[in-house]
Amino acid sequence: MQQIIFFFIRNKNFLLFAVLFIISVALTIQTHNYHNNKYVSSANFISGGVYTFRNNITDYFNLSKENEQLLQENLMLRKRLARLQETIVIEKLDSTVFPSKYQYYTARVINNNFSKTKNQLTLDRGRNDSIKIDLGVISSKGLVGIVSDVSSNYATVQSILNTKSRINAKLKKSSHFGSLIWNTKDPNVVQLIDIPRLAQLEKGDTIITGGRSTIFPEGILIGTVKDFHLDNDDNYYYVNIDLFNDMTSLENVYLIQNNEAREILNLEEGVEDVEQ
Amino acid sequence: MSNSDILINIVRFILLVFLQVLVLNNINLGGYINPYLYILFIVLYPLDGDKGLLIFLGFLLGLSIDIFEDSGGVHAAACAFIAYIRPVVLKYSFGVSYEYNSVKIRKADPMERLTYIASLVFMHHFVMFSLEIFSFKHTLLLLKSTLFSGLFTIIVIVCTMIIFNKKSQ
């Protein structure tokens, strides 16, 4: 017994180090799993508060650019509205509670990183603003990411610049779909894989979200084809995509909630049960 | 450790964390190169201070950075590692004489000091980037990040030490 105690005393530094190292590696591995409840996340009271404070200061430097972007978005929405009014029967628009499949929220990005391999953003909205895990996040120019963790006032977003992200996307002109991934090299270029060889690809083709997930509606802009080549077994294209979004300067974003997501997921789970 | 030493170390801890998360993490030179100045806390921790306490404080320091960075425990692991390995690094950089408290980091021979800083920095960066990238597919990225961020960190640490050394004299 005494020897055991002596052993502990003699090696106490090593044991302390080993315990702490194992804890931190466990924390690391846990964040590599897709949105489990995280213990260490910037969506908490202290770091959220500090980032909000910083953002309140740095916001002023980008105001003119932000305004410009919002103006352009307004212009685009107005054009679309005008086109809609021409085609839709007026009685339908009378109703103020027009039932929609998707619900939108706004948020501000208070922390953004894009230089690591698994990048995250922090938003200033949380559970109290009815933000939930798995909501899609877009900006006025295109896709941003998916909410991975929420606290009462803040939320973290797994950006598309994250090696764990796989988002369904397709070619706008031919509807061939594939998965969006990131090879960690350039924060403005992402990759689209699994596009079949039959697809007619050209430089400059537009890529949009595919609508096959319950997270993003169909047709959200992602980017244009930069270049492409066949992958190793010559069956699929590996496409580099220039993002419309500048992922290095995000300020205002929108969150999308699919009101029918639960219904769809329940239904799909039911199908799996039948197969078993 | 005297009382003033404790106070200095507490202030240094807090200042370095804030400097790191609010300023230095946003530099992104060439897309991915950042200096990790906060390990200066471990570099400058008193040589006669308690080693167990340093391991714990190193872990806490890394964890604070992780909380802000959303990176799980990569900084915590790297900091705990260099805090644990520091006595060994001290011994091979300054020779055995450091054990008799005759060495002051600020007054040591510049070459020995550089060896000490560079060893800690590269070990820290290597552990941190391996855990962060966490796949064999990106080995080149791991080596590149370690090398370039490491050099950047060493330059920033040496500059910081020179500036504050002059002031205190």
UniProtKB/TrEMBL annotation, chain A:
Keywords per UniProt: Cell shape
GO cellular component, one term: plasma membrane
Record carries keyword Hydrolase: no
Any Gene Ontology biological process: regulation of cell shape
Family matches, as InterPro entries: Cell/Rod_1, Cell/Rod_MreC_2, MreC, MreC_beta-barrel_core
Rod shape-determining protein MreC beta-barrel core domain residues: 109-257
Entry superkingdom: Bacteria
Function: Involved in formation and maintenance of cell shape.
Recorded family membership: Belongs to the MreC family.
Name of the featured protein: Cell shape-determining protein MreC
Lineage, top ranks: Bacteria, Pseudomonadati, Bacteroidota, Flavobacteriia, Flavobacteriales
UniProtKB/TrEMBL annotation, chain B:
Intracellular or extracellular location(s): Cell membrane
Domain of life: Bacteria
Transmembrane annotation, as ranges: 6-24, 36-61, 73-94, 114-134, 146-164
Membrane topology, record value: Multi-pass membrane protein
Main localisation: membrane
A biological-process GO annotation: regulation of cell shape
Keyword terms of this UniProt record: Cell membrane, Cell shape, Membrane, Transmembrane, Transmembrane helix
InterPro entries tied to this protein: Cell_shape_determining_MreD (IPR007227)
GO cellular component, as recorded: plasma membrane
Family: Belongs to the MreD family.
Protein name per Swiss-Prot or TrEMBL: Rod shape-determining protein MreD
